[in-house]
Design a protein that fits this description.
The chain is α+β, with helices and mostly antiparallel strands. It has 18 helices and 12 strands. The strands form 4 sheets. The protein has a 5-stranded mixed sheet, with helices on both faces. It binds 2'-deoxycytidine-5'-triphosphate, magnesium ion and manganese (II) ion. Manganese (II) ion binds next to loops.
């Protein structure tokens, strides 16, 4: 219907719609248009529902979902699968399995099946003929389906921070996404980078990626690109047992002071004096990004580096033992491959970028719609005022407001501030 894709609702029932899309495609292939249409309408209703389905009654109350389909919805929600796919129709089970590969959607999975790939083993065997991103998806299929424990996200963030501050000690690093919203496990690692001078973030980004590749933290490259002034890297990363030894304690310290969550407690520019690790001497035993330290321009100073602009006084529901097992040691070593997104932004975009990258996606959409009602326009780059629209189409871009913090964005929109853990809608 011509709406911009950024306004597509977030699908809270993907587990169900993935399976339903499979069935819809299957009925279409069998020329059973009537049944296919039934599924298509139910999929639309499920995708537009504002939250995950939590009961049979809730499924039944959806438009175009009758008792028969509501039963299937509830079976998937409550058991995690549909027996019909598991037992009676191995073909659909395989297509569903293949559609869970990173880079492969339901449509591609159907096509692969039609081309004669009838099992995950066959897909693995033919991986070399797939596009590069799907090859990576196949290679790390099992790992990428696993959720990431919070402590491991902290460890990865700590490592990124460690190398970034060797490039320039003034760097700002914040772990965003579901981590910042306080979740115990995350789908991926989302890291925002910036620099107080408003420019050096580009330099950090350009130098950081090769350093992280050389270190071995980044194992596979998915994509890299610009969005105006923002630079985004998407890839796969993995920590080693050695990383737990070297950075584990540092990560525990970071998690327990909630610094990574970049919580600002005032309307002022954040306090940049927060440091991680107790002293400089402890960092001498840490690996160095060989030859990349600008010791002249950026003398290493305990006070200069900051893990994130924020104060550790947050009301976030992060326990002081986050990152530890009950006896106080860092959590046990795991080294699965994980999805990682790194975004580097100029400081003037920090407030809106932090807000965007923290999400949730549904929360972001509500904020953008609210901005629109106020004749403003909110993006990861800025909050603009004086935007003129003709229906959905923007006639003028308006003027960006100065929004150095998330607080300032909420204030400009006339909203009470919501802490990250209150944005889990
Ligand atoms: N985002 C968005 N719209 C999108 C994709 C992302 O607004 N289409 C924003 C909101 C997300 C944030 O970026 O919270 C990070 O994206 P992720 O896909 O990593 O989502 P989360 O971190 O929220 O969840 P997960 O634990 O699954 O990674
Ligand atoms: Mg994420
Ligand atoms: Mn992400």
């Amino acid at each position: 219907c011509g709406r911009p894709s950024s306004d597509q609702p977030i699908n809270h029932n993907k587990q169900v719609t993935d399976i339903f899309e499979m069935l819809e495609g299957d009925y279409r292939a069998q020329k059973d248009t009537w049944r296919a249409m039934g599924y298509q309408k139910a999929i639309t209703a499920l995708k537009h529902h504002h939250k995950p389905i939590e009961s049979f009654a809730e499924a039944l109350a959806l438009p175009n979902v009758g008792e028969r389909l509501a039963k299937k919805v509830w079976e998937i929600v409550s058991t995690g699968h549909l027996r019909r796919l598991d037992d009676r129709d191995p073909r659909l089970k395989v297509i569903l399995e293949m559609s869970q590969v990173y880079g492969v959607g339901p449509t591609t999975a159907q096509k692969l099946y039609a081309k004669g790939i009838h099992s995950m083993d066959q897909l693995r065997a033919q991986a070399s003929q797939l596009p590069p991103i799907m090859q990576i998806g196949v290679k790390h299929y099992d790992d990428l389906l696993k959720k990431i424990p919070r402590a491991e996200v902290t460890l990865i963030g700590t490592k990124v921070y460690h190398f970034a501050k060797q490039i320039n000690s003034g760097v700002l690093v914040a772990i965003c996404g579901s981590y910042r919203r306080g979740k115990d496990t995350c789908g991926d690692v989302d890291i925002l980078l910036s620099h107080p001078d408003g420019r050096a973030h580009t330099d950090i980004y350009n130098r950081l990626i090769p350093i992280l590749k050389r270190d071995g933290l980044l194992t596979d490259h998915l994509s890299e690109g610009h969005d105006g002034t923002q630079h985004k890297y998407m890839g796969i990363c993995r920590v080693t047992e050695h990383d737990w030894d070297v950075f584990g304690e540092m990560a525990v310290a970071a998690a327990s002071c909630a610094a990574f969550t970049a919580t600002t407690t005032s309307h002022m520019m954040p306090d940049f004096s927060m440091t991680i690790g107790s002293s400089q001497s402890s960092s001498s035993s840490l690996p160095s990004a060989s030859g990349t330290l600008d010791s002249d321009e950026n003398p290493p100073s305990a006070a200069a580096a900051t893990i994130a602009p924020g104060l550790p006084t947050s009301a976030l529901p992060i326990s002081s033992t986050a990152g530890r097992v009950p006896d106080g040691r860092p959590v046990p070593f795991t080294n699965f491959h994980r999805r990682i997104d790194l975004i580097a932004v100029p400081l003037k975009e920090w407030g809106t970028a932090l807000l965007y990258f923290t999400g949730s996606g549904y929360f972001n959409r509500s904020m953008r719609l609210l901005a629109r009602k106020r004749h403003m326009s909110l993006s990861q780059h800025s909050l603009n005022v004086g935007v003129k629209r003709l229906r959905a189409e923007k006639l003028t871009e308006g003027e960006p407001l100065l929004t150095p913090t998330e607080h300032s964005v909420f204030e400009a929109l006339g909203l009470p501030y919501l802490a990250p853990h209150e944005r889990n809608v």
